[in-house]
Design brief:
- The chain is mostly helical.
- It has one domain (about 1-160).
- It is built from four helices and four strands.
- The chain has helices spanning about 15-35, 45-65, 110-130, 140-160; strands at about 1-5, 65-70, 75-80, 80-85.
- The protein is globular, with a radius of gyration of 16 Å.
- It starts with a strand and ends with a helix.
């Protein structure tokens, strides 16, 4: 897939407001649900849906923040390009499109970056794509911890 440096069409002020008041709180609610869910066991009929939603939401929000997994699959690095569907345009919205800065991975501790990398990889290998014999065994505790970290990053950045 082709990448471009930025959105060719900026969001309108009403679109920005809609993302801040509706889209982001909705996604943060998904992360909060996996964090606060009382029955974190695979035998619970709701847990798989809650957990899978959190995995893919972690991956999506990390990309929104301008982050991705490194080539060694063990750390988070900067990624500020947009996926393009025609080499000119993109449907992607990133935090800078809302008027806030990208997250600098160097501002995040190595321990937290490792948890974010695990969640990103889990979202990619276990949820975003149907896969077989991947080299990851997703750890729900790391995904839950990453959910907390991502929520904090977004809230801290938007409230500045």
């Amino acid at each position: 897939m082709t990448h471009i440096a930025s959105r060719p069409q900026p969001l309108t002020s009403s679109e920005i407001q809609d993302f801040i008041t509706n889209h982001l709180p909705y996604r943060l609610k998904i992360l909060n649900t996996v964090v606060t869910y009382p029955n974190k066991v695979n035998s619970d009929k709701y847990w798989p849906s809650i957990y899978e939603s959190a995995q893919i939401t972690c991956r999506m929000l990390l990309q929104f923040l301008g982050l991705k997994i490194n080539k060694d699959l063990n750390d988070i690095v900067s990624s500020v390009n947009y996926y393009s569907y025609d080499n000119i345009n993109s449907y992607e919205v990133k935090i800078v499109d809302l008027g806030f800065p990208f997250i600098n991975p160097e501002d995040i501790s190595l321990e937290k970056r490792a948890k974010l990398a695990h969640a990103y990889l889990a979202g990619s290998k276990a949820t975003a794509h149907l896969t077989h014999q991947t080299q990851i065994s997703a750890d729900p505790n790391k995904v839950i911890e990453a959910s907390i970290i991502i929520s904090e990053l977004i809230k801290k950045t938007i409230q500045q």
